[in-house]
Amino acid sequence: xxxxxxxxxxxxxxxxxxxxxxxxxxxxxxxxxxxxxKYYGDEIYFSMQFPFTKCRKCGNFFFPQKSLLxxxxxxxxxxxxxxxxxxQILAAFYKKYxxxxxxxxxxxxxxxxxxxxxFNFPILMIKDALNVLEIPINQAIEIxxxxxxxxxxxxxxxxxxxxxxxxxxxxxSINGIFHLKFLKNHLKQKNKNIRFFYQNxxxxxxNLKKLSELLIVENKEQNLCFLVExxxxxxxxxxxxxxxxxxxxxQKKEFFIFVKKTKRKLFFKSKKVFIL
Length: 276
Ligand SMILES: [Zn+2]
Known about the structure:
By secondary structure, the chain is mainly α.
């Protein structure tokens, strides 16, 4: 895993935070691609891919890539190697944390998603994503968030385990008594997830309808796999079949396994996601 340390300013309260940006990542263990586009099996990677974050001070959501951002290495660069815009951003940072005694400050970390989310990951992230969608955002970010929202909802319905905890068990080799302890809560959490899914089914459906519209506007041909899967997940099997017929010969070859498995799911009128 290659991370880059950055400082980012919350656009709402003007507080600066440390923030780590993922440059490259090695998957831990077996990771599969799921039919809704999720890399299934590595939740740490998934949790680091959200374009938004939540301010630890004022609680508002913002987008680090669209905020004032200072990569740590700028602090060590000679001033003449920085351009005008970079100098201005750095000046705003030094106004809050003066260059001369920067070492004496402990700049707080954004830490999002926070550790308390691990136990109830899909539900808490769904709530946050729905709130972020109320903010005016550009189309590319909206598509990104709506795809992740769809995948989180599918986690609730089709995943019978807490993937985040499973991941931690695996990387820290925690087992035995901890497994037993969490096993007890496991069934309770599973039922809670299914209940939440059905309580929020309207949000699931409206998200998929809006996502489908946006993907068509963006590039229908390139997004055909997503569009077929959305209609199948919604139970619109004949619409999914019509879209599947729009695949070019090249796409049929490129997405051979997806097409083959989707046809089988459509035959059995199944809305369930599958592993490719
Ligand atoms: Zn803030």
